[in-house]
Structure prediction request, 434 residues.
Amino acid sequence: MALDHLDRPSLSARPSAALSGRVRAPGDKSISHRALILAALAQGESRIEGLLESDDVLATRAAVAALGAQTQNLAPGICRVTGRGGLQQPEAIIDCGNSGTAARLLMGAVAGWPIEVAFDGDASLRGRPMGRVAEPLIQMGARVTGERLPLRVDGGPLTAIDWISRTASAQVKSAILLAGLRAEGTTSVTEPAASRDHTERMLPLFGVEVRRAGLTASVEGGQALRPTDLTVPGDPSSAAFPLAAALIVPGSEVTVEGVMLNPARTGLFDTLIEMGADLTITHRREQGGETVGDITARASSLRGVEVPPERAAAMIDEYPILAALAATAEGTTVMRGLKELRIKESDRIALMARGLAACGVAVEEEAEGLIVAGGRVAGGAKVETAHDHRIAMSHLVLGLAAERPITVNHPEMIATSFPGFVEMMQGLGAEIAP
Prediction:
């Protein structure tokens, strides 16, 4: 079981021989959350295949069950959700664990129903801002008590708004659109730059019309959701780790199948190709409203680049692994426009800077960026992850190509997004163990 490896005080990655093999990307976390929530709002039975069974997604599944939907595991990664066409008063606090997506999207989903819902989460999630969701919901007519967890949403009749977002955030946009389904009139959200559009792509699968024009997405209130069957595509954020390992371990060739290729999520792959990565994409196809493909990575001599700041929205979760790859590249990699990384599960800018420095990498931390000078990676360090799954996995991948092992603490948090990470990497030949 995955937790046999993750339920340890630390994990270490050691310099490895060539990696090889074909693996399947775990289900996309963002889409798994949305599929559960929309299925719960629908009237009738939906079947979700390829559902990511990570801690974050399990928190959402428990939440929709507490809000009145019936959920049933049919097999690993296959879940039946029977919605009641609405949400009911839960008997207890909704615990979102470590998941900001669960908290923010569920806040929007419950806002239009005559129920009072208290939300909480772990210590990390309690530190993340929720005011950016609370503000538009309050303008629509909901009552929100608190700007950070724990907080309470008192739902009821809503009025549509035209919301101009100050930042590009798929979570904020999705929360507003979900609330808009219960609002009188047409609710629209306009962003300063394009964010992930998974909600806009998935709502039509459940029978909801979404209008999109440039950076604006709109829904008409009063639309009922109908149940559907869908397959969750593979998560590009998770696929990034085995692909990155193949690029930096000499002689490696790894294929990850079924990776989602939504343009709002492929910024890392674009950047890697600019760095000289040998990446090829084959067998493009449609799955769950998204384009997917099989990606093959072969060991490559990477070179440093300056990543366009406007690309940040399309790869915001991938900067930790990009920073690890940059440490092995020839030359300097400049990453800016990363303000959002300061308020993720941890301060990812600071943690990556400290972790890379501990491994002998020359790195400069800026207020909204990182500058990494590539070359020799000494390793031999124990890295503080602050319970952040992406910090842990990024340093473990780096350890496969370092001169000496790299150890991370709190590996149990990897289960929030990628519970099978260690087993997958070991199956490819990676030297990762307690």
About this structure: The CA atoms of residues 118 and 152 lie 4 Å apart. The longest strand covers residues 278-287.
